[in-house]
Amino acid sequence: MTIQGTRVAGSTSTIGAIIAAMSCAACFPALASLASALGLGFLSQFEGVSIRYILPLFALIGLAANFLGGSRRRGLLRFVLGIVGPLAVLAAALLMATYGMATEWLLYPGLVLMIAVAIWDLTAPKSGAEGHDLRGFERDK
């Protein structure tokens, strides 16, 4: 997968995870309020499918994209943050679906990390730009 492909997959998984979490009004009330304000209140009828299947799927896509792309670009901090966010969302979704636990404390920080890393990916200069290699060191000219 190319670096641009992992950027797209990471951003797509972030958006998908947020929309899937918006469908569970009882589980994640802050996101459900946002969904209603955006006119996406109809998503609540798909609550079970979203929490059991869609949210973990998008978290896994984000995890894979960040693992594949993060190990090749922008250093250790970006790699770790890119892995921790989807892992937190995946853990929250699985704990919610399996044990019915309240996992807002785990989901919201995970989504914030996923959003932050997606913005970081979109605003960072393209790899290898401006005479630097992928680790930020100057290339031999």
TrEMBL record:
Gene that encodes it: merC
Keywords: Membrane, Transmembrane, Transmembrane helix
MF (Gene Ontology): mercury ion transmembrane transporter activity
InterPro entries linked to this entry: Mercury-R_MerC
Organism whose genome encodes this protein: Tsuneonella aeria
Protein name, entry field: Organomercurial transporter MerC
Ranges annotated as spanning the membrane: 53-69, 76-99, 105-123
Keyword Cytoplasm on entry: no
Tagged with keyword Ribonucleoprotein: no
GO cellular component entries: membrane
Signal peptide span: none
